[in-house]
Amino acid sequence: MDKQKDLHRMEALKKELFILNKAYFTDNNEILPESVRDSMKRELIDLESRYPEYITPDSPTQHIGAILDERLQKCQHALKKESLADVFLFEEIIEWEGRLKKHVDTSFEYLVELKLDGLNVTLTYEDGIFIRAVTRGNGFEGENVSHTIATIQSIPKKIDSSFSGEISGEVFFMKKDFERMNENNDFKNPRNAAAGTVRQLEISAIKNRKLSFFPYQVFSHFIHFQTQSEIMKWCCAQGFKIESHSIVCASVEEVCLFIERWSPRRGALDYEIDGMVIKVNNKKHQKIIGSTAKFPRWAVAYKFPAEIVQSQVESIDVQLGRTGVVTPVALLRPVLLAGSTVSRATLHNYEEITRKDIRVGDTVLIRKAGDIIPEVIEVVFDMREKKSQKYIFPNTCPSCESVLEKEEGEVAIRCVFHDCPAIRLEQMKHAISRQAFNVDGLGEEAMRALLDKKYIQNIADLFSLKKSQLLSLPLFKEKKADNLLASLDISREVALKNFIFSLGIRFIGQETARLFSMFFIKRLSKKTIIQKIIENDSQLSLFSEPKVIEVQKSIFSVSNFFTLAMGLSLEEVQEIDGIGEKVAISFLDYFQAKSSQVLAEKFESNNVYILYEEDTSSDEYSGMTFVITGSFENFSRDSLKNIIIQRGGKVSSAVSKSTNILLCGEKSGSKKEKAEKLGINIWREKDLRDQGIE
Asked: Cys bridge to 276: 302, 376, 572, 674, which one at CB 3.0-4.6 A?
């Protein structure tokens, strides 16, 4: 890393965080999502840990809260109010426990609470009588908001008369109460609405706003607790409503399991949460472990995986796809997004870069498109350097240096040189993928070596590879060569939909390949189908003799398929349900090309056959759109997608009003929350079994 660039980045982050924190904590205005502020803060902490000599007293990492509201009376806190250190990964929770054991070498019990997304307020009681309410503020003093807090019905104005001290908790809106009071969309989220309501000067302004309060900490010199969980029981006994889903865990492993179970369920709660608070349960241990200048060491806040974060564009690269499309890619400062570290994000195409005005050095917001591919969604313009320059898209291919072209009516810019090495490599990677020939044991580096040596020029050549050729490459030893040849032998027989997909025809993805496959299966003459007997050695147990089992397969030749495809007219192809003119023309152009006919002959000579599989699809899910999210114990996502398609349904990547069913597994994330808000039917794995799907 360049030190000067890092120091410059530190200053930019501090300046932006000051603006965002003031807007969020003082003005009750969310300029950027909280997850973006979190990622900026995390990046700044990382840089400051790398260059501790450059930490300044005004850094946002050295302060709690933000500037106080000048309109409200200030009150000193009897005890300093601390914030919590954030953790984002289970590994960081385990590391945190390791630090705890340096203070107290014992097995800890943990209280885990749902982390409400609200405003921190401390209530003061004297002889059991409510006296005042003060915001956390900067940790030393806060704003007196007693007049608004007193309107919260769930806060008892009188408790045990022997109690004098402070009760800290979270002020928030229940979802239904937020929706009711925010009909005009004055607030972006419940947290800002709660903070804005609490800081109102006139009670009349909040008469229709129903706030709620959950306590989580008690400070008193007159009453002592053994554990954190005892505090919650005491609060409940005093008439407070408490967060009822908290749990005491005997280990960090139990903590992580609890978080894992709750993550996909949080959308069903009556209030917003953005993570979990994990506390050492034993109060004696808390006292020994102590605090840093800002945080208690005995507690951390686990934040759910962020859906949108920020990073800096360090450079812009371009990559070629199998059809020659040149896609710009942002190379980023590594950042944690949705539970994994991201350092690259797609910029889609030249027009997107121009429209969003993305430049090298920009701070950008990124998210995972369809929960899979990171993409840049917008630029944080007020962090842009004055000397930044517009990005100039290359006019030649980065691989073969031929001039790039743009077809009329398309946004894509392409390399059209038929023998471009980068395109050929991408075509080969596509052809051996699981949805195509499904060849194991052939990575990108080995593929590149085979192409460089001219051992292969297309997918058909793979099936003529010799062991001696593989062993001539440094990447292959005896066993690896044998494994690859065995995998290729299995892949010689391929389903028609996989074969069509493997060809890499422009505009033809998995679903379109399936539609073509169904069409051709119906048109095949029975005379062209060959019955092939395959002998398999099978041993039922360690003590039984191997037995030869004969398996009969129906296959047909690649040349028969190509002959059928070449004989079609444009009108016939367009009559296939789901196939439009653009796809039909692309399909016919491919099979009319001389190179395709040569490829068919190579497949034929290398004993590649297409499996004949009769169409077993139904219309049970006809007209229904499904979205799949999370992980399933007995199904892969691909198998579920195939089942839905076989039954006449469609699979989409995003939840919308047109979605009929959400198939929801473990770790389902934001899609489940959105589906619940839209009232979409949600199926679990058990529901699939009830449907007869095994």
From this structure: 302
CB 508 within 8 A of CB 587: yes
CA–CA distance, 146 with 651 (Å, rounded to integer): 53
Residue 280 structure tokens? 């050492």
- Give the residue range(s) of CATH 2.40.50.140 domains in the chain: 308-414
Q: Give pLDDT tens digits for 270-285.
A: 999 999 999 999 999 9
Phi, psi at residue 389, to the nearest 5°?
-125, 150
Cα 504 to Cα 11: distance, rounded to the nearest angstrom: 48
Which of the four CATH numbers 3.30.1490.120, 3.40.47.10, 2.30.40.10, 3.30.470.30 does domain 74-303 have?
A: 3.30.470.30
Give the CATH number of domain 3-62; options: 1.10.10.10, 1.10.287.610, 3.40.50.720, 3.90.226.10.
1.10.287.610
DSSP labels for 277-317? Answer: EEEESBHHHHHHH-B-SSSBTTEEEEEPPPSEEEEEEEEEE
**Above 60 in pLDDT, residue 570?**
yes
> Which residues make up the CATH 3.40.50.10190 domain(s) of the chain?
625-690
269 contacts 114 by C-beta, under 8 angstroms? yes
Structural tokens at position 70: 């000048």
Ranges in the chain annotated CATH 3.30.470.30: 74-303
| Bridge partners, residue 311, by sequence | 364
Give the class (CATH, top level) of 493-614.
mainly alpha
Of the listed ranges 81-85, 112-116, 514-518, 683-687, the least confidently predicted one is 683-687
Q: Looking at residue 512, what DSSP letter applies?
A: H
pLDDT higher than 60, residue 549: no
Beta strands per DSSP E along 529-632:
530-538, 547-557, 609-611, 625-629
Q: Which residue has the tokens 């501790």?
A: 52
Nearest alpha carbon to residue 138 among 83, 241, 65, 82: 65
For 205-242, the pLDDT digits (tens) are 787 899 999 999 999 988 899 999 999 999 999 999 99
Number of residues assigned to the chain = 694
Q: Long-range contacts of range 10-13, CB-CB < 8 Å, 24 or more positions apart? A: 10/44, 10/47, 10/48, 10/51, 10/54, 12/363, 12/383, 13/40, 13/43, 13/44, 13/47
What's the CATH number for 308-414?
A: 2.40.50.140
pLDDT at 206: 84
Q: Supply the CATH classification number for the domain 625-690.
A: 3.40.50.10190
Q: pLDDT confidence of 539, banded at 50, 70, 90?
A: very low
Range(s) within the chain of domains with CATH label 1.10.287.610: 3-62
Strands 625-629 and 661-664 turn out to be parallel
Question: Is 547 part of the annotated catalytic residue set?
Answer: no
Tell me the whole-structure pTM to 2 decimals: 0.74
From 115, 279, 303, 641, active-site residue? 115
Going by C-beta distance under 8 Å and a sequence separation of 6 or more, which residues neighbour residue 29? 23, 188, 192
